[in-house]
Here is the input.
Amino acid sequence: MRAVRNLLGWIVWALLVAGATLAIGVIWFPQLPVRQPLAFNHAKHKKMACVVCHRGVETGAWATIPDMNTCLNCHAAPPVKDATAIAIWSAAAMAKHIAWQRINRIPDHVYFSHRRHVDLARLDCASCHGDMADRTTPPAHPLTRISMNNCLDCHRQQSASTDCARCHK
Ligand code: HEC
Ligand code: HEC
Ligand code: HEC
Ligand code: HEC
Ligand code: HEC
Here is the structure.
């Protein structure tokens, strides 16, 4: 009897620990890890202005992720070495499309415009995206988590609006 109770105690403990670990995981990493089709290297393109590839970032709501035509402007031959990567590159070059996955995303009920923050407020990309410029591989999660609290912290510091209706549709 005692042994059974001990065993049950351990099982309950194990479940509690597993549950807590999962909860912490979900809070820190609310999205599943993203795997990009190719190991794009931001650091190797550091001499270029971000806007060359992220074209809408100064003029529109979305920064946009570059399609294959942008890459082909500079890379007539595949800039990758291993066979799998060359195959992926060649197929993408032929289709003029590569399926980059977005990692930063806020819900549809929130207004957000890059132009407002990059052009008008003159903020660095790094203040919201962390050190993307020095990444040698694509991150599986946003380097800095985008949350309402993060938006509000900066809005309070910089005397921008904290009115619900400014951000929410
Ligand atoms: C303005 C020109 C330019 C554009 C546009 C460009 N690249 Fe490059 N890329 C370079 C140069 C220059 C290098 C070599 C850098 C070095 O080796 O230091 C390079 C290197 C690379 C490498 C090799 C990196 C490594 O780790 O050795 C890859 C992969 C790559 N580019 C992918 C891309 C992709 C994907 C795009 C489109 C999203 C793209 N490039 C757009 C100029 C460009
Ligand atoms: C040569 C093209 C190129 C340049 C220049 C470039 N990027 Fe990127 N960027 C990409 C590609 C391709 C991806 C998707 C793959 C990845 O995450 O590495 C990306 C992804 C990103 C993302 C994640 C977007 C998302 O899915 O939410 C951020 C943030 C970003 N870049 C910021 C920057 C910043 C900041 C700079 C300038 C310091 C910059 N990029 C310069 C090509 C580029
Ligand atoms: C004030 C914070 C902030 C700044 C500054 C900022 N971003 Fe973003 N970025 C975001 C948010 C929030 C999203 C998610 C937008 C959405 O889901 O509509 C995002 C998304 C992106 C994406 C994903 C694709 C897309 O079309 O939106 C890229 C790429 C990106 N940002 C690049 C940049 C670059 C490059 C800069 C600097 C020139 C920059 N961002 C500056 C907050 C910021
Ligand atoms: C690092 C600082 C910073 C962060 C982070 C930031 N903002 Fe802002 N935001 C500003 C500043 C500064 C302005 C005022 C820009 C201007 O219009 O001159 C602004 C303006 C705005 C406006 C226009 C407000 C109005 O008065 O109409 C909206 C909407 C907005 N931000 C949404 C967001 C959202 C949503 C997020 C989070 C995803 C966010 N911001 C994160 C600094 C920030
Ligand atoms: C500076 C912009 C900003 C302001 C001001 C703001 N919010 Fe938000 N809010 C956001 C962002 C961004 C998210 C999405 C966060 C995420 O995806 O983690 C959000 C999410 C929410 C959510 C969660 C909805 C969901 O998707 O689960 C609620 C509820 C909410 N906001 C209410 C409010 C109320 C009430 C106010 C006014 C007191 C307010 N917000 C002011 C940016 C803002």
